[in-house]
Specification:
The protein is of the alpha+beta class. The chain has 5 helices and 9 strands, in the order βααβββββααββαβ. Strands 3, 4, 5, 6, 7, 8 and 9 form a 7-stranded antiparallel sheet that branches. Strands 1-2 form a two-stranded antiparallel sheet.
């Protein structure tokens, strides 16, 4: 299994804000609080499925005093099946909306068959994958919020030969419950998030204990690397 080397979403759903990277991450300097440094080290030490490539990316500058960001891609051979971003936010003074000092924000997306994208139950199912992944890992969390969006693209004129495609996008945030020393188990939250990525990508369960997981079937035309 590959260690998370550190590539990711916002406060209550502002994935777009998380793209405002400014000068880079504020997660390793002396000014960072000990709980935040410990939470980041836990992320970096996480052991993940080999099909999921994770790396660090510049963190947003406006969402919290401290932030650490990751990007991930689900890879099958030379094809990218799904991708996402995860941002760990920390405000030592606490945040009223978070009801805690840490917040995890994410964006996950993947292409789908148009017929599947038209399923009226798909948004509810995708949201249940996120909460189910956290619960399956035994994660305590609070104040979850987010959106599930389906989008379809149709091409015309010079692009008419391209087939229509559909995409599912999950934007979410939640407050990880803090453990000893005020530090949440960020490695386990990252593993749960990767479980969600794997489901959206249509990967088979990682182990016998995951046999009940229902994943999306293989989508048409995953992106070549």
């Amino acid at each position: 299994m590959a260690a998370a080397q550190g590539r990711l979403s916002d406060g209550a759903g502002g994935m777009d804000d998380a793209k405002d990277t400014g000068e880079g991450e504020r997660d390793a300097g002396d000014a960072a609080s000990p709980p935040f440094r410990a939470a980041v080290e836990s992320l970096r030490a996480a052991r993940l499925r080999p099909q999921i490539e994770v790396e660090a990316t510049p963190a947003p500058q406006r969402l919290a005093p401290f932030a650490h960001a990751l990007e991930a891609t689900v890879v099958d051979g030379d094809q990218d099946l799904a991708d996402g971003r995860l941002v760990l936010l920390h405000d030592p003074a606490g945040h009223e909306a978070w009801r805690g000092t840490f917040r995890l924000v994410t964006l996950v997306r993947a292409e789908l068959e148009p017929e599947m994208a038209a399923d009226p139950l798909l948004p509810d199912v995708c949201w249940s994958w996120l909460t189910g992944a956290l619960q399956a890992r035994g994660m305590a969390y609070g104040e979850p919020s987010g959106t599930v969006t389906r989008a379809s693209s149709h091409y015309f004129g010079g692009l008419a030969e391209r087939g229509a495609n559909s995409q599912i996008e999950i934007r979410a945030s939640w407050t990880p419950r803090e453990g000893l020393g005020g530090v949440p188990d960020t490695a386990a939250h990252l593993s749960a998030w990767c479980d969600l990525l794997a489901q959206v990508a249509g990967l088979p369960p990682a182990g016998p204990g995951d046999a009940s997981v229902v994943s999306l079937p293989q989508r048409r035309g995953p992106q070549s690397r």
